[in-house]
Amino acid sequence: ASWQITFGPYVADYSRYLPRSTSPGKVFFAVGSGSVIGAQIAMTVGVLAAALSQGKLVGHEVDYIVGLGGTGAIATLLYLSIAFGKLTINTLNAYGSLMCLATVYSCGKQRVRVSQSVRLLVLAMIITLATAIAIIGQHSFLSAFKSFLLFLLTFFTPWSAINLVDYYFFNHQAIDMEALNDPNGKYRAWNVTGLGVYLVGVAVQTPFIDSGFYSGPFVKMLGGIDISWLIGLALPAGLYYVLRKAQSAAAAGAAISR
Fold first, then answer.
1. What is the mean pLDDT of residues 82-96?
2. Residue ranges making up the domain that contains 145
3. Rounded to 5 degrees, what are φ and ψ at 220?
4. What are 56-78's pLDDT values in tens digits?
5. Fewest CB atoms within 10 Å of the CB: 12, 30, 163, 252?
6. Average confidence (pLDDT) over 174-190
7. 22 in a structural domain
8. In 3-state terms, what secondary structure has residue 215?
């Protein structure tokens, strides 16, 4: 679940460049099938490699996988595949981070233009910081990264739930792009209801989280099973729907009374 949900920001970053006539169903299918197929291929290779390695894979994943190809052209191809894979995903991550920072910076303002030099500088800072963290934590990077992803899921799931409910039930799969840049427009500068529900969604997950950073008090009662992401999806989605429905009804009533 965490693997799939973390693709949400990529979809948001890149689907904006598609033509308006692009079918939402096709976008959903392309993204969903691509991430599922890619994940299944990688995980299947990992399972097979782990079975063949007889315990030698953990901690030496890249060396072992490349070693399966010997020392010739196949090994070189495997090394290049891994290197280009890391380059590709890190490019997407750096761009996504830049877009997130730009969104935060421009929130509540009219159109804001960021110069190319500033964008390049911010990208360089992001890449430098990420590389430094990876180098410092290289000896325990995979375990720390796994824990980080699971912990990050706590913040992704309510965000995903609120966005999906808002997009499909209230905006009816149509976003007014001009209004997004207008703090006095129909979306306003801040969606107070959405932010409130998001904070509630994060909070209610904490007793059920099980990660390397933190384990909630209910985890032992559940036999070590982490169900926080289920709660983080269901509760914010339902709560946001109810509150937004009430807001819409109140707004409609006020409009009629005028």
1. 86
2. 141-249
3. -65, -40
4. 777 777 777 777 766 677 778 87
5. 252
6. 77
7. no
8. strand
Is the pLDDT higher at 5 or at 152? Answer: 152
Express each pLDDT in 127-137 by its tens digit: 999 899 888 88
Which residues, listed in sequence order, are joined to residue 156 by a DSSP beta bridge? none
176: left (phi over 0), alpha (psi -120 to 50) or beta: beta
Task: Check residue 70 and give its pLDDT.
Answer: 66
Does residue 205 carry a pLDDT above 70?
A: yes
The amino acid sitting at 196 is G
Total domains in the fold of the chain? 1
Query: What Cα–Cα distance (Å) separates residue 247 from each residue in 126, 161, 185?
Result: 39, 18, 16
d(CA 134, CA 60): 16
d(CA 14, CA 131): 24
Calpha distance 193→177 (Å, rounded): 20
Paired tokens of 17: 């460049």
Look at residue 70 and tell me if it is in a domain: no
| Letter string b/e over residues 156-184, b meaning 16 or more CB atoms within 10 A of that residue's CB | bbbbbbbbebbeeeeeeeeeeeeeeebee
pTM for this predicted structure: 0.73
Concatenated DSSP letters of 138-200:
GGGHHHHHHHHHHHHHHHHHHHHHHHHHIIIIISTT---HHHHT-TTSTT-S--HHHHHHHHH
How many Å apart are CA 177 and CA 140, to the nearest integer? 43
Phi then psi for residue 210, to 5 deg, are -135, 100
> Is position 6 within any domain?
no
